[in-house]
Amino acid sequence: MMRLPSYRYRAPATVEDAAAWLAESPADTMLLAGGTDLIPNMKRRQQVPATVIGLRGIAALSQLAVRDEVDIGAGVTLTTLVRDDRIRQQFPGLWQAVAQIATPLLRNMGTIGGNICLDTRCTYYDQSYEWRQAIDFCMKKDGSTCWVATSSDRCLAVSSTDAAPALMALGATVRLVSAGGTRDLALGHLYVNDGMHYLTRRPDEILTAVHLPAPDGWRSTYWKLRRRGSFDFPVASVAAAARFDGDHIIEARIVLGAVASRPLLVAAAGARLAGRPLTDDLIASVADDAYALAKPMDNTDFELVWRKKVVRSLVTSALRELRGDDMRDARVRLARHPLTAS
Question: Domain boundary residue among 212, 227, 251?
Answer without folding.
Answer: 212
